[in-house]
Amino acid sequence: MSAAERWDAKYADWDEPGTPSDFVIGHAELLSGGSTAADLAGGTGGTALWLAAQGLATTLVDVSGRALEIARVAAAERGLPLLTMQADLEAEPLPTAAELGSERGWDVVVCANFLHRPLFGTLRHLLAPGGIAFAQIATVRNLLYNERPGRPYLVDEGELPDLCGGLEQVSFEEDWFGHRHEARLAARRPA
Ligand SMILES: C[S@@+](CC[C@H](N)C(=O)[O-])C[C@H]1O[C@@H](n2cnc3c(N)ncnc32)[C@H](O)[C@@H]1O
Questions:
Q1: Which residues sit opposite 39 in a β-bridge?
Q2: Which domain holds residue 125?
Q3: The CATH number of the domain where 85 resides is what?
Q4: What is the best residue among 6, 61, 62, 99 to mutate for testing ligand 1's pocket, by most ligand atoms within 8 Å of CB?
Q5: For residue range 27-84, what is the model confidence (pLDDT) as tens digits?
Q6: φ, ψ (nearest 5 deg) of residue 181
Q7: What's the number of domains the chain is made of?
């Protein structure tokens, strides 16, 4: 079964977008001055819709057509402009910003709860100069209290900043956020 089929099946019963990332919301001040955003593997668009509501021209990228459909319906209901792009972010080679719909790169790029290590390494190429990336992913410590996500979907503690090479760290936290242990990095592409 392909990733698209697997995730379409998972989202089959959903009819509402998920909740936006509290990490991104908590750093809303970093969005100022930006006009475009992308949420990579953004699922049903909780965070993408929030970014669009902040006035950013937002693109939601995901492999699941079903997830994108849920996001599009919600965007129409809320009167928010939202571009959607179905793409495999584990493809070889990884899609470029231009292939994902942005010639100059985005001012804001979010990648949350999706681990494909090479993708973090290309965030700098997906950002416009001065743009800000938000990377959020559970760590291995999360296994202490949670069976899922399983080990293949977790970063080691301290690993995330190294994965996001070529970016200037703005903030980095690794901690329990509720019942989940996560690495949360905000980092800027040098202007
Ligand atoms: C755990 S969900 C996270 C969704 C969202 N980022 C969030 O934090 O709520 C993982 C997402 O990755 C997407 N995904 C899985 N494999 C993918 C791939 N190869 N390319 C693009 N998206 C993929 C799934 O469809 C799903 O929406």
A1: 60, 110
A2: 3-188
A3: 3.40.50.150
A4: 62
A5: 999 999 999 999 999 999 999 999 999 999 999 999 999 999 999 999 999 999 999 9
A6: -95, 120
A7: 1
